[in-house]
Amino acid sequence: MKRKQFANYSLLFGIVLIITACAKPIPWPASPLYDFSKYENEKSSIISIDSVKKLLQGHYAHYDVVSYEDTTTKTPMLTFIISYGFSDFYLDDNNDLILSQRFVRASHKINQKMITSEFSDESVQAIQPKHQKVEISEKDGQWHILRPPTPTLLGINGDPLQALSKDRNDPNLTDPDGDGNPGVTVNINIGKIIKGEIYITRREIFTYYLQLNNDGTLTGHVQDDSEQFIVGASKKILDQPSNNFQHPSTGMNPILLVPVSDDIDTLEELMAIRDELFPKEPNFF
Asked: Is the pTM of this model over 0.70?
């Protein structure tokens, strides 16, 4: 039985190697993915930080793209992670401007047609970033907003200021998406031949560099220093380490916040007006 099982895994691994080897490497599209310059080049008429704080308070639809490359595959795998959610700015008792966030959906785009991955809405919604004070500055007549990084754990409890645990038997592992598996689940489909799940934990560490535009939108880029660990998989062949790193161009990692009514606060409501608010998702094909 063990020999048969080993033979099956060897066959599957061979299939993956063939698929990967035959896949033509699709390059990154040109940077930037979106041209926000017509908004960002306009000088602001606001002259004080207090006025900026007053203007920024409110409810925003959130859209960002983070571009990654994984060098562990034979053909480098390039991926867009596209996130949707809501961002809210409010003043606290110290008159500091605070940013709170809630993510509702994320989609993956990969540069190999025969490989797809999917992150459930439940997994995305389990991400709970800390409410964070933002830093406001002015340069060359434009107002900039910095959201500093606030490490947040996903799929495991512990101290988010410490490095992510690499222990698959860590007693602090959790099941935030409620599917009965440790960590959060990523569904993988390779060539419609291999379907399975990967179970991961993450230490989310992201920084937003934003600019306030005259139309009320905020545009900029995301810097992602997150850590990820694979704690298991539904198939042995999928239980492989990965080595993702973010594309260095800021134009490949854009973020856009658009003011919306407070009444729009669910995934369904956001997706219903998605095309009115945001540009098309980037793609490799």
From this structure: yes
